[in-house]
Every structure is written in structure tokens, then in C-alpha cells.
């Protein structure tokens, strides 16, 4: 909700600011256009005056009615008006060359006075052969007792700049009320005349920096006074090569009304912005009350339920969505309560079953322990008593074979081989038993003495070995790996089989390679050769346990074993058994 309030406030504030700036630009543009038009009127009048009149006609004379009217309005109703002030003002307007006379005549002295009873005068124009122009009028004074007789005579060469400019400024002020003053300065910046106040005899001068900018650039410029809200535009007037030196006209505008309008727009936009923000806050507070109160009630009820009171119900609140939420929570709590009750029932069942199961497990464990002891007893009998019997049998068969000859000697030889096979089986069983029970602990063992000891036990087999200085982690059964691999090569390759044993250091430990030049291992048999009772395709006297024992021991030592070809891609070229052992860390 706070984010929504911030978004609304920022949006309303931005729109208000944009609206204010847009209206401000429009107001400023409108006032600038009016000032440009006013400057144009004044510039045009100044050019006409400075350039001289092509001819003097009625249109070029300004009507002094406004001045006379103001003078009449200020006069008393029954007393004669003061003609000296009026003559002075008209003289200042028409110039020093004009002859002006103002007289007051009693109405009773004029027999045809009724025809002059008009509110506004009708000026009479006349001219002489020498170019003099005369203007005259009769004006009825308020109260109807007196007539004001006015005559104005202008010589031929009089161009009436003051009068023309004065009324030009008057018309400009009617169009643009902001126009405050129009003052004329010469090219040196000295004051010449004031068209808005002809009687002004100020010694004002144009600021040096402004005068320098006008004369150097030859263009108009302007200054502003924020304190009085006035701006002065300096117009450079040049009527052409035949005219006098340029004049500078300072046109001053009072922009107080513009500032007031802009401030009014600012206050209006500010009020609109604050009202919008207040309304947005009011809406958000209403939403918080409408949404927050039901949510808080639901949260309170949920906390009560969470503390374990599953019989507590969610209170009903206003709003369809909240009603659906309340129903959903009540339904969920009801299902949860039912589930807890079922779990309690199941827990009791499990507890009873667990008690029975523990008794069954203990009983089964005792049975397995007794069975294991019985198996170990049988294995001990097998390893001890049967092995002793086999030892005696081997001894007697050796003696019997020496006393026999011919076919009987062959029978004795077969019996001797059978007895040796029985001894090998008993030995393998003992090795497998030790492997599964993990009775031994791994320790550092020098690999070279183990290999040479197994080679010495097989003088009837040609074995090639160069020696090694490797030390690996193993136990006393490590020799069984080499013994089984050597016997496996002899059993499958025959008496002419040769065996090669190599040891090399790899990144992950020690790799041992035992190869022979026997019949090799087919590709289809390589994945299964280390399984129990798996035998090759030859009719060898093996038991099928030798390679299985090798894999069990290598795995116990933390290594891996695999079967490959001695010559890659040629299984018939002999077998290669490779296994890895962990060496001691440096």
C-alpha cells in the first residue's frame, strides 16, 4: 500500500509539474507575442517620423480629443475651465512651431449656441496657399454654460513627431496594458523624450553595457528587473542612409500580471496536486481498512489454530474473496484435524507393531548369530580336519606313485591331481572367508617381496619380472592375488605358458599388469570372468573362484581390476589382467 501511495503521489506530482510548465510556457509565449507586436508598432512609427512624411494629410494627424476630454472632465461644472493648462499640454504635443489658442465663450453670447451642444467635437480642417494647416473645434462644457473654442495652426514644414508618437503609444497601451513607458535616446545614450509622458525632462541615460552591446551588435537587446517584474526592450531604430543617427527606443513593460497569472497557475496546480495526493491517500486508507482488517482477523485466527486449537473457526468477514479464503482455511483445518487423528491411531498401531518387530528382530538376530557360528564351525572343520586328511592323502599318493609304473602310475597321478585340487578348494574357501569378514587391517606392504615369493613357489612356470620399489596399502592376503593370477594363466595355457608381471606408477596409484601368452579371454567373457564359478572355454582344472578372489581382495584394498587382451584387438594372443592398488602418500 505504501508503494501504491508513492506511485500515486509521484504520478500526480509529475502530471501537475508538466501541466504547470506547459501553461507557464503558453502564458510567457502569449505575453512575448503581445510585446513583439507592440515593439513592431513603435518601431514602425519611429521609422516614419525619422524618415520624414511623404505628405501631410488628415490621416497622419492624431485626434487630440482624448486630452481635451480629460481636461473637461476634470473641470468644475459651473466655473470656467483653466485654458492655460490645456494650451500647454497641446503645445507640448504639437511642438513649438504650432500656434494654439484655447478660449472660453459664454453660450448666451452665441445666438446659434444650440448647434454646438454636442458631446464630442467635430474638427474643422482648412489650409492656406503657403501650406499652413488649421484645425478648429467647439466643445460644449458640462452644465451647458460655456463653449470651449480650440484652434491649432501648423506650418508647412512641421512633421508633428511628438503628437504622432504620443498617440501611437496610446493605441499601443490600449492593445497592450503591460506597456509602461516608451523613451527615446540618441546614439550616445542620452535621454531625448518620453512618449508616454511628454513633460518628462529626465537626464536618464542608457546603461553603458547595454549601449555598447546595441552599438556593437547593431541589434536589439533587453534587460529585466525581477524585483519590480519589469522588462525593458531596447530597440535600435535606423530609418535609412538619409536619416539622422540611429535612435534607441527603450520600451518598458510591466509583467506583474504575467507573474500573477503564472503564480495563480502554480497555486492551482499545487492545490490540485495536494488534493489528488490527499484523495489517493484517502482511497488507500480505505482500501487498507477494507482489506487490512479482514486479513488481520484471519491472521489472528490462524495463529490461534497454529498454537494447537484446531477447534477454533475462522471468523466471517465482509467480501466474497475473504469469505472464500475463510472457508478454505476452515476446510484445511478440518482435514488437518482428521489427518492428525488418523496419525494418532496409526502411531499407536506402529508402536505396537514396532514392539513386536523389535522382539522378532532380536530373535532373528540370535538365530542368525547361531547359524553363523554353526557355519563357522563347519568351515573350521573343513579347513582343519579335511585339509589334514588331504595332506595325508597327498603324502601317501606321492609315495604310491613312486612305487607304481605304467597304467597304474597314471591312475595314481590322476588321484594326486584330484587331491591337490581339493587342497586348492579348501585354501580358496579360507581366503574368501577372510575377505568377507575383513579380519585384517590394511598397512604399508612392499610389493616386490610379495611378487618374488609367489614366483619362487612356481618354479615350473616361466615368469618374467624386473622388480619394483612400490609400497602399497594391503594385508597378508595380497600374495593370493598374484598366486591365483599365475595359476589361472598356467591352468588355461598349459605347461608352455609364459607369464609377464609389470608394475608402474600412475596418477591415481600403482597399476599391476599380469599377462600371459595363453589362449586369452574372449570379449564376451571379459565382463563376467571375475564372477563366482565362471570358467573359461578350455577344459582347465580350475575351480572358477580364483579371479573372483582376486577381485574381492583388490576391491578391499581400494582398487579396481579388469581383463584385457595382451595384444590389443587379438584375444587369441593372450590375456592381460590389470589391477590398481593405493600407494602411500608422499
Q: Helix and strand layout, with pairings?
A:
Elements: H1 2-51, H2 65-74, H3 83-94, E1 99-106, E2 124-127, E3 133-140, E4 146-154, H4 161-175, E5 179-185, E6 191-194, H5 208-217, E7 221-225, E8 230-237, E9 247-254, H6 256-306, H7 320-403, H8 407-437, E10 443-446, H9 447-456, E11 462-465, E12 471-474, H10 478-493, E13 498-506, E14 509-516, H11 546-556, E15 561-567, E16 570-581
Parallel strand pairs: 11-13
Antiparallel strand pairs: 1-4, 2-3, 3-4, 5-6, 5-9, 7-8, 8-9, 10-12, 13-14, 14-16, 15-16
Helix pairs in contact: 1-4, 1-6, 6-7, 7-8, 8-11, 9-10, 10-11
Describe this structure in words.
α7 (320-403) packs antiparallel against α8, α8 runs parallel beside α11 and α9 (447-456) runs parallel beside α10. It is elongated and about 200 Å long. The model is unreliable at 52-62 (pLDDT under 50). The strands form four sheets. A five-stranded antiparallel β-sheet has the order 6-5-9-8-7, with helices on both faces. A five-stranded mixed β-sheet has the order 11-13-14-16-15. Helix content is 51%, strand content 19%. It has eleven helices and 16 strands. It has helices at 2-51, 65-74, 83-94, 161-175, 208-217, 256-306, 320-403, 407-437, 447-456, 478-493, 546-556, and strands at residues 99-106, 124-127, 133-140, 146-154, 179-185, 191-194, 221-225, 230-237, 247-254, 443-446, 462-465, 471-474, 498-506, 509-516, 561-567, 570-581. With 586 residues, the protein is of the alpha+beta class.
Amino acid at each position: 500500500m505504501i508503494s501504491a501511495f508513492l506511485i500515486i503521489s509521484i504520478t500526480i506530482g509529475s502530471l501537475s509539474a508538466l501541466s504547470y510548465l506547459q501553461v507557464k510556457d503558453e502564458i510567457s509565449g502569449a505575453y512575448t507575442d503581445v510585446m513583439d507586436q507592440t515593439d513592431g508598432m513603435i518601431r514602425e512609427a519611429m521609422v516614419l517620423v525619422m524618415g520624414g512624411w511623404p505628405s501631410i494629410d488628415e490621416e497622419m494627424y492624431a485626434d487630440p480629443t482624448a486630452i481635451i476630454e480629460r481636461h473637461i472632465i476634470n473641470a468644475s461644472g459651473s466655473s470656467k475651465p483653466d485654458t492655460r493648462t490645456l494650451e500647454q499640454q497641446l503645445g507640448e504635443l504639437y511642438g513649438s512651431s504650432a500656434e494654439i489658442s484655447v478660449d472660453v465663450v459664454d453660450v448666451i453670447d452665441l445666438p446659434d449656441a444650440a448647434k454646438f451642444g454636442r458631446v464630442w467635437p467635430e474638427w474643422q480642417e482648412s489650409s492656406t496657399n503657403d501650406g499652413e494647416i488649421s484645425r478648429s473645434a467647439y466643445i460644449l462644457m458640462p452644465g451647458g454654460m460655456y463653449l470651449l473654442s480650440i484652434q491649432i495652426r501648423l506650418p508647412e514644414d512641421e512633421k508633428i513627431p511628438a503628437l504622432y508618437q504620443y498617440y501611437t503609444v496610446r493605441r499601443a497601451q490600449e492593445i497592450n496594458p503591460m506597456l509602461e513607458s516608451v523613451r527615446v535616446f540618441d546614439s550616445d545614450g542620452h535621454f531625448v523624450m518620453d512618449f508616454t509622458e511628454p513633460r518628462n525632462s529626465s537626464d536618464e541615460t542608457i546603461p553603458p553595457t547595454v549601449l555598447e552591446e546595441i552599438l556593437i551588435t547593431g541589434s536589439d537587446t533587453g534587460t529585466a528587473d525581477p524585483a519590480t517584474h519589469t522588462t525593458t526592450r531596447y530597440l535600435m531604430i535606423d530609418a535609412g542612409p538619409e536619416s539622422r543617427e540611429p535612435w534607441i527606443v527603450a520600451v518598458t513593460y510591466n509583467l506583474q500580471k504575467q507573474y500573477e497569472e503564472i503564480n495563480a497557475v502554480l497555486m492551482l496546480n499545487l492545490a490540485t496536486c495536494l488534493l489528488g495526493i490527499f484523495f489517493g491517500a484517502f482511497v488507500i486508507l480505505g482500501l487498507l481498512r477494507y482489506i487490512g482488517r479482514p486479513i488481520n482477523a484471519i491472521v489472528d485466527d490462524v495463529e490461534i489454530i497454529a498454537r494447537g486449537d484446531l477447534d477454533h473457526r475462522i471468523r466471517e468477514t465482509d467480501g466474497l474473496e475473504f469469505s472464500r479464503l475463510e472457508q478454505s482455511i476452515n476446510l484445511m483445518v478440518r482435514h488437518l484435524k482428521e489427518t492428525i487423528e488418523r496419525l494418532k491411531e496409526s502411531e499407536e498401531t506402529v508402536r505396537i507393531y514396532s514392539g513386536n518387530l523389535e522382539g522378532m528382530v532380536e530373535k532373528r538376530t540370535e538365530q542368525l548369530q547361531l547359524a553363523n557360528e554353526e557355519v563357522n564351525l563347519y568351515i573350521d572343520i573343513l579347513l582343519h580336519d579335511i585339509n589334514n586328511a588331504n595332506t595325508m592323502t597327498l603324502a601317501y599318493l606321492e609315495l604310491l606313485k613312486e612305487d607304481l609304473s605304467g597304467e597304474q602310475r597314471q591312475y595314481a597321478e590322476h588321484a594326486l591331481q584330484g587331491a591337490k585340487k581339493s587342497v586348492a578348494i579348501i585354501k580358496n574357501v579360507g581366503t574368501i572367508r577372510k575377505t568377507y569378514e575383513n579380519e585384517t587391517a590394511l598397512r604399508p606392504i612392499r610389493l616386490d617381496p610379495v611378487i618374488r615369493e609367489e614366483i619362487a613357489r612356481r618354479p615350473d612356470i616361466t615368469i618374467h619380472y624386473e622388480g619394483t620399489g612400490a609400497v602399497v596399502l594391503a594385508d597378508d592376503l595380497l600374495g593370493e592375488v598374484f598366486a591365483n593370477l599365475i595359476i589361472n594363466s598356467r591352468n588355461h595355457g598349459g605347461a608352455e605358458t609364459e607369464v609377464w608381471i609389470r608394475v608402474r606408477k600412475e596418477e591415481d596409484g600403482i597399476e599391476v599388469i599380469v599377462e600371459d601368452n595363453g589362449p586369452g579371454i574372449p570379449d564376451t567373457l571379459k565382463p563376467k570372468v571375475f564372477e563366482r564359478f565362471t570358467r573359461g572355454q578350455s577344459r582347465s582344472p580350475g575351480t572358477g573362484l580364483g579371479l573372483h578372489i582376486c577381485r574381492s581382495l583388490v576391491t578391499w584394498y581400494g582398487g579396481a581390476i579388469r581383463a584385457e587382451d595382451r595384444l590389443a584387438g587379438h584375444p587369441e594372443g593372450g590375456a592381460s589382467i590389470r589391477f590398481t592398488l593405493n600407494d602411500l602418500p608422499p
